Known about the structure:
Layout (H helix, E strand, L loop, with lengths): L1 H22 L9 H25 L2 H15 L3 H16 L18 H5 L4 E6 L8 E6 L11
Antiparallel strand pairs: 1-2
Amino acid sequence: MGTLRNVIIAILAISFLTFVAFFGRLPAFRNTPIGFLHRILWIHIPNLLRNLDILITGGRTSQTLRNFGHYLFNRKHPLVLVCFVINILGALTSINYPRSFSSSYSPAPPFSSSLKHGRTSQFTINSGSPFSFPSLTSTPISAQSPVKNTS
């Protein structure tokens, strides 16, 4: 019970800070505790961190972080290329190609229970191509090719 209480408190705290960050600037909240917390969050804490950086490192940390942010958002770097390749590969692995493009794969034999009970379709697990995940499909029994026993 203590863990659930801690999770709920954490969720409420994050939600409240998000509310303060987004809406604390509105004129309706200007002279309220929400406006005060907004000023602390966006004005006083960054100024305190900047003054500490100037005191300890002479402002080098702020300049380094500013340059790093400029590099990430405005320069060409391999992170964008890596994300693009991951997206393309993810899209290619999720495409279901028609059966003519797949390898020579024979579907599973019909279930004997579906024939006994007079059902008109059966469910088989097959893979449409070597690039896709197995999917559950429904195929009419009359549309399936007969399974040949090679033994």
